[in-house]
Amino acid sequence: MRHKAMTIDEQLEYLTKGCVDVVRPTELRAKLERFARTGKPLVVKVGFDPTAPDLHLGHTVLIHKMKHFQDLGHTVVYVVGAFTALIGDPTGRSKTRPPLTREEIAENAETYKTQIFKILDPSKTRVRFNSEWLEPLGSFGWVKLAAKYNVARMLERRDFKKRYETGQPIAVHEFMYPLAQAYDSVFLEADVELGGTDQLFNLNVGRDIMPAYDLDPQVVMTTPLLEGLDGVEKMSKSMGNYVGVTEPAGEMFGKLMSISDDLMWRYYTLLTDLTPTQVLALRKRVDTGDVHPKQAKVDLAKTIVKDFHGAAEADRAAEEFERRFARKEIVAEGLDVLTWELPGEPSAWRQLVIGLKLADSGRDADQKLKQGAVKVNGVRIDGPFVIQQTTLERGREYVLEVGRRAYRLRVI
């Protein structure tokens, strides 16, 4: 295991790289030293409320941090918020969030597991549903838990405070959410809890109440929001600047090659297993000309694609990218085939892009067409309302490019 070859200082550097908050580093060091003495792994807890099962790379920043603890021999507990999702996380909400049904929770949880185990080692990951211990807590247990925190502290939370000051309603059950999340840490006797920056308050509630149960407070660590492909806004499907973890290898690779050289280093830090020292060394080699920036970006893209599709697919995606964009070659054989029935009446190109599900929405389709990202046999379609019939004929095949993906388009 990797921890045997790393000093405590190196372990700290590796585990905290890219983190926004670490509460507190001295306590994390003490826990790592305890592990070195006793060989007893730390219990590292991460909770997911399975509300949106389609993950993008922004979500995997936290999952990579889970893997870093696994790399060093620690036990990661993936807590499915089966009970807390019934409450509805109020984080960042200006109004009460509707809870999920049990069926939605179970379905989304399975989807999450399939996606996160592309990065995590399933054999080193304990999956627990917090309904196991929160449902049996009962009325008396909930009253005892609630007595360990006070309303004044709860109203220090930014979204609660804002809603209270502006007269927006706060349902009493919303106060139960951070308490339930805190009790997860008590039940599991967590040494460390990981979460996004928006979860800092909830994570600290767990830290606050653990001593009341004769437990050492957990170390709290938060990971940042990942900038999207534009390098400006956070990665988001609604912004169209995302890389989905279920996207085909070639599409993922092409999107990653589009990021700026500066953003590349942010992705190296947050989305790979390189240590800070290794990232800095690679950056110096690029700065001195020993490594070309494009090669560094190719290596980054291959590393990320490999996580989700394997080494062979990552190599194939790199070769296809080189052929298409460096040598300007597109070979129709081997491309996915799409079939389109040309309408009898004049129809805009946006309808084809939407109809073939080559965009996430009508807005996304319009944006692709306005940006010239859609080409037929190498010729750009100059806008969403260009008429299909001026370009396409029934009974013919075309090479259709949408962004960095290419298809054989069969028109009938």
In short:
The chain has 412 residues and is an alpha/beta fold.
How would you characterize this protein structure?
The longest helix has 17 residues, at 293-309. The protein has 18 helices and eleven strands. The mean pLDDT is 88. The chain is of the alpha/beta class. The protein folds into three domains: 2-223, 3-Layer(aba) Sandwich (Rossmann fold); 249-326, Tyrosyl-Transfer RNA Synthetase (Orthogonal Bundle); 336-411, RNA-binding S4 domain (Structural Genomics Hypothetical 15.5 Kd Protein In mrcA-pckA Intergenic Region, Chain A), CATH 3.10.290.10. The chain is 45% helix and 13% strand. Helix 12 crosses helix 16. The strands form two sheets. The chain has a six-stranded mixed beta sheet with strand order 1-6-5-2-3-4, with helices on both faces. A five-stranded mixed beta sheet has the order 7-11-10-8-9.
Using the coordinates above, name the CATH class of the largest domain: Alpha Beta
Number of domains: 3
Cross-sheet strand order for the largest sheet = 1-6-5-2-3-4
Radius of gyration: 25 Å
Helix content: 40-55%
Topology, number of strands: 11
Superfamily (CATH H level) name of the largest domain: HUPs
Q: Measure the end-to-end span.
A: 57 Å
What would the keywords be for this entry?
globular; five-stranded mixed beta sheet; alpha/beta; 412 residues; Rossmann fold; Structural Genomics Hypothetical 15.5 Kd Protein In mrcA-pckA Intergenic Region, Chain A
